[in-house]
Structures are given as C-alpha cells and as structure tokens.
Amino acid sequence: MEFPTWLRSRGGKIHPELDLFHTLGSGDRGVVARSDIAEGELLLLLPIDCAIYMPTEEEFNKRPDAFPAAVRYLRESHPGLSPFLATTLVLMSEVTRGSASPWAAYVATLPPSCPDCLLNWSDEEKQELEGTSLEQSGPDPAADVYRRHVAPIVAARSDLWPGLGLRAEAAEGGAEAREEASGPGLRAFLRAAGLVQSRAFHLEAENWVSGAKEICQLEGGGTQVFLLPGIDMINHSHNPARRNAHLERLNLAQAAAAKLLEAAAAEAAAGAAADADAAAAAAGGHVEAFFVMRADKPIKAGEEVLHTYGNLSDAQLLQTYGFVDSDDAFLRNQPAAAAAAAASSGPSPKKRAKAGQAAANGGGGDDDGSGYRNPYNAALVPWTVVEEVCTGLLRSMDQAPSGSLQRAKRDFLAAAGVLQAAAPDSTQFVLLAQEPLPDELTTAVQVLLMTKDEFQELRREFGGGEPKAAAAGGTSGKAKAGAAAAKAGGGKARGKGGKGGKAAAAAGDDDDGSAGAAGSSSSLPKLSLGTALLTEDEDFAEMVCIASLQVLEACMERYPTSVKDDVRLLRTADCVGRERLAVRVRLGEKDVLQLAKKAVVELMRRLRDGGGAAAAKEEEEEDDGEEGDSEESGSEADEGEGEGKEERGAGRRAPKRQRRGLGAEGGEDGSGSGDDEEGEEEEEGDGLLLGSDDSEKVGYGAEEYDDGIGEAHDRGKAHEAPKDD
Ligand SMILES: C[S@@+](CC[C@H](N)C(=O)[O-])C[C@H]1O[C@@H](n2cnc3c(N)ncnc32)[C@H](O)[C@@H]1O
C-alpha cells in the first residue's frame, strides 16, 4: 500500500498540494508545495495510533491491543529501557517484520539510514571532532549498548525481531546473545537507532484525554519519543525567514473544535466531551489525539515546507541529525568574515545592536548576503580547566592555595549550585553565543581566586536564609563577601534555605574553610556573584578577567586546529563530507569562545572605566579612528552577561595599583590584557559574528535508564540547549 493511502485509511489527512517525498537540489528529500498554500491551512493530520511510540501506562491500559507486539513485550519484560532505546527496538521490530507489519507502508518511506549523524562516524572521522563538545572517549556507545542490552532482548524473542539470526544462550546473570561483531542484528539496530535519533519527536508526556498540560509520569520519567509518519519528512530550519510550518498536538475535543474530524466524530466529540471513549469510537476507533502540522505563513508553489527541530547548536544538530544549520557561506565567506572581524574588534553600539538584533531575529547575516549563522551555538568550558588556570595564576603570585582550601571551594561551589552536585569535577560550563560569559563561570573564577579569609567570609555570609546586607563600600574581604551574599540571595534559590545556610556557616569554622559534609549539601541557594565584587576591588577584577581570558585561551587550545586553519579548510574544495561538517562545528564553537573573550575584555574595560557615559565616548573614539578603550557599557555584551545595571551607574574610578602583583598587561603566560586580546583577534582575522540574546537556557532531561543509550544519543546531550521560543 502506498503511504498516502495507508495514512488516509487510518484517518490521517495530507494536503492535496503537498509533495511529501520531493527530491531536493541537494539530493536529500523534503516536503514541497505543488501550488500556493494559505497561512493556517492544514498540511498533515496524523492520528496518534499511526505513530510509533512507547505509551504511558494510562494510554496502554486503555487499549493494549492497539500497540505493536514489541511494545507490549518491552513494557512487560524490560520496563527500565529508555524511551529512546525502547522506540528503537519497536521500529526495529516493524522493519524486520516486513510486509507483516501494520507500519509497512511507513517503513517503506524511511531512508536507508541517517548517513551523517554521529552514530555512523568511524573512529577516524570522529577525530576531526577533537576538542569539541562532541569529542568522545571510551568504547563506541551504540555498539556497546547493542551488545549489552539489545542483542539479548532480540535473541530472546526472534518472533518479534525475525531474520536476525541471533541465538540466545544461557549465561550467568541472564541470556547472552552470540553474533559476529558486525552481524545483521547490529546493522539493523544501528539503522533503527539512527532513524529514531534523526526523525523522532521528543515531547512531554501529556494527558491526551483532557488535553490539559498535565504531565503524565512515564515509568522512566521524562519525555516520550514519537515517530510521526509523514510529518517526519519535513526538514529543519530555525531561520525565521525560511521556516513556515509548526506542529501541534490536539486531543479529540480540540480536533473537533478545529473542524479536523469527520462530521460524525466531531458531533460525538462535541456532544460527549466528558465521554472521550464515545467520541473516540465515533472518530473511527480509539484515537484520542492527533498531531497536526499547519502552515505558519503562506507557502508558495515550489517552496519547501520547513519547521524547527528546536533551538539546537550546530554540534547538537550534527550529533542527532547529521547536518549543521549555519550556512557554510557564513563561515568561509571572506566579506562576512571581515565584517565579523570588524565586529569582534569593536563596532559602535549601534552596529552591535544591529548585529544582535539580526541574531535575535534568527541568527543574522542573511540580510546582507553573508549567510545564516546558528545563534544557538555553544562552547563548553570544563571546571577542571578553570581550576587549573586559577591555581596556576595564584601560584605565579606565590599565593598557591592548599589542597584542602581548593577542595573546600569546590565543595562549596557544588553545594551552591555552581558545579554539579553529584560530580563537581565533571562540570562543564556552557557558553552560548547569546550569553557567552555565564555568571556560573565568573562566579567560579571569583571564588577560586579569593584568599582563604575572603572565602571563609563569603561562606559565613552566604547562607540559605535571608541574605545579610552588604557592607557599604570598601574593598575588604568582609565587604566582598557581604556583597556576594547579598547578590546570591537575590538569585534563584534552589532547594531549601535555612539548613544549608547553617551548614555552610558551621563549616566555615574550619581552619582552612573546608566544607566537610556540609559542603556537599546541595541545599544552599544558588550562588551568583555577578560583578558586585569586581566593582568593589579593581585589582581583584583584573585578576578575575585575566584568569577568565586564560581559561578561554586554554579552551581554544584544546582544538588541534586554529581558527585560521579551519577557515582555510572551508575555502578549499577538498574539505567535503564529514570532515567539512566537523570543521563547521569547530568554527561555531570557537566563535562562541571568541565572543566570550570579547565579553571579558569589555567587562574589564567597563570596570576599569566605571561605566559612565561610555556609549557617547565610544562613538567619539570610533569616529576618531581609535580602537583602544572604546568598548564600554551600552553594548550587547552588557546584556549578554545578564548583569551590570547597578554597575553601569557606578561612576568613573581612577585606575589603581595592583595589590596582588599582577600587571594589567597580563600574567607570565602572556594571556594578556584586553589590548593583547584585541591584537590577537586581529591577527587571527577569523572573525565570526556576534551572538544574539533572545533565549533562555534549559537542559534536556537527564534521566537515568538501564541502558544509558537514551542519554548518549538523546539530542542535545552535547550540552545544554536553549529552550524553544
Ligand atoms: C526528520 S528527517 C527529514 C526528512 C529527510 N530529509 C528524509 O529524506 O527522510 C531529518 C533528516 O533530514 C535531513 N535534514 C533535515 N533538515 C535538514 C537541513 N536543514 N539541512 C540538511 N539536512 C537536513 C537530515 O539528514 C536529517 O537527519
């Protein structure tokens, strides 16, 4: 049966003017309009029982026979599998069952694999991702998960996964499957995993009957993974200028209200809102929910239908879907690079505002022909690097902290929500193009650079209860800690207050400030130092900025290639396929690190000059052709740091002598001051554009499942991603 016939026979609808399987110029397939489609028109309607997914308990209990046999088996025998792996196994079952599968018409629409998603990269190809957030170590997780989890399940039920030739053998602790390293089972699994990874929709479980945004508790927790036939033919664009469709899910009553059901079903749904079963029966079975794709705007004949897969960085898109969003042209285009380099070295606030606005509107660049840049790109900064750099800096000043003080600081930061509570040493700070200098990073640097007395004072002042008022003025450790505590109290609290505060205060009695058991408590409010301490103490501010620059430089050095090398590679015709994808990911991350360096330099200058009427001064200086100290407040960097309103009005300060033995020109390692930094940017000449600031950060679920593959292959695992807007 042809796919459209199959879909319609199950109550679905396809817009008559849509070519669902159009071959695009790129060779890929996509959905294209055959003639003009008006805004709001229905493109695809998919009853939920056409989808392949693991139901919630409630969904399953309502109609157990409606689900594939593999769903029933996995629910009963392997309830601890992640939604990702369970869905992969169900798809694998439908694929291996061939024409016997009720989803055969859908299976026939699927491509042979997701060719470029990370699952399919060889170890040699993955080396191109060294230094990036996608760098992997250890055994290949997919093959490993297959051997440990999938093969035994498949071998035990060859009726559900026929034709794979796996034999179950008794082994200590359960069945063990025997198969050649690259046998048909592994190949079938890798294909199904790649397809689920690149085509599935990750949605919060919802009560389909009430339609209320009431989240059902999945057995494993977290989101449900849906394969949506037909809808999964639509390609991604986050560029608002290009995307033109969006997905909704409706319950029966909502679908009836939207006039999406046949007359009898609509009548039943309207008349029997309380009796969802009756309405569902009238709708032609037990369908209780629908996925609906609509046109967001008019779509012209010949235009591709596009929707967004989420606010994902290029690394996340590559990992999951095998492509990146930034235009190749953006990265290699000489005029764009030059424009970006100019932007990096300090355009006027007006120009920066324009660039920021362009990015906020969807990445920027397109309007002037320089190509689209993914505004959701991100870079990771490991805590271990931050700790190493700060310790090195203190050591160079003969102020090396004791091991116990270092541990105390780490434990305190973990308890205060700056580092991961469970595994502080594995913490990676996420720098986003839109927020290149996160407060967590500058907070960690500040704490690490505090003297023992300052740290003890901070801990005494910082508690879970009401923050103590900051001591007015002064640059003593006491004032510093007080200001910090005041700022922390204003931040988002996580966990309960009083207990953690007492614990921290009690722990502060230790000689070296070690937090002991209290330090590992995660019940403190979140510590957010902002720039209050930096405005109090210029020397400290200088140290913090220099250490931050050194950290960013160290992160830059983790990549085996320089920005220049990457741009050069992109300009050659030889750099193709996966190598080219890797270069584009590298450049996107380095771009974010450059933005962060620039934000530090701007912060440094702003603190040094005290804000004032900097914007006007900057304009003047720019007109005079001076570059030097022209990047004070009023720029998007201020906003990007998410702080500093109070600092901006602080008035001009006279530069002070360093009391900590650091020159403004940088430490011994030559990481340099802002001027050095700028020189370096000019020398690199790589220039990548400024970020936008239009989104919040949110992490994808970090659920624990038996298999672990849900974690390894869930989208967005490369790092936290901004929430969809
Ligand atoms: C959900 S499927 C979309 C349909 C797919 N093009 C097909 O032929 O079956 C997702 C896959 O489409 C491709 N894709 C989607 N959006 C893309 C884009 N903007 N650029 C390049 N490839 C894209 C990638 O291969 C991705 O893994």
TrEMBL record:
Comp. bias intervals (Low complexity): 514-523
Region Disordered, annotated ranges: 341-371, 487-524, 610-725
Basic residues compositional bias, start-end: 651-660
InterPro entries for this protein: Rubisco_LSMT_subst-bd (IPR015353), Rubisco_LSMT_subst-bd_sf (IPR036464), SET_dom (IPR001214), SET_dom_sf (IPR046341), SETD3_SETD6_MTase (IPR050600)
Biased composition (Gly residues): 663-673
Compositionally biased spans, kind Acidic residues: 618-641, 674-686
Annotated GO MF terms: protein-lysine N-methyltransferase activity
Keyword annotations of the record: Methyltransferase, S-adenosyl-L-methionine, Transferase
One BP annotation, GO: methylation
Domain SET: start-end pairs: 16-310
PROSITE patterns: SET
Biased amino acid composition, Basic and acidic residues: 710-725
Superkingdom, natural source: Eukaryota
UniProt protein name: SET domain-containing protein
